[in-house]
Amino acid sequence: MILDFTSPPPLDFMNIFDPYSEEWSKIKCLGPSPQNHLWGTSAVSDSCLYIYGKCSIYGKHGLKSLYQYNTDSNEWTLLWSQPSQQEGPDATWGCGMVFYSGDRLLLFGGKHEWWRKECTNEHHVFDLNQSEFSA
To answer: Is 0.90 topped by the overall pTM?
Structure first.
């Protein structure tokens, strides 16, 4: 399955490609959908896509949020955001994220400001059961 996130925000509808039937279909998504993110990152598990974002396409800096999209239920869930939840990573440009250990996301690297040459080697773990980050 391939998800197309090119539609303008909010992501209430998505295009999905089924490689078995070789056809695209448009589906309605449930839940609070994220804004489109620039310089963000994503990771996947068996049935979920995770998106961590830095900046909206409208230039709203400091957007720090983590969303989950469940492909079985077609539902978005906001897992974490700042400033409502204070503990967590600074928003980073060009960071990476992977799903591991069955219930964790590892967010790593990137830059705090896109124009600077220095990259960070910071890493943060998001526990999906506790809904919190740790360094």
So the answer is: no
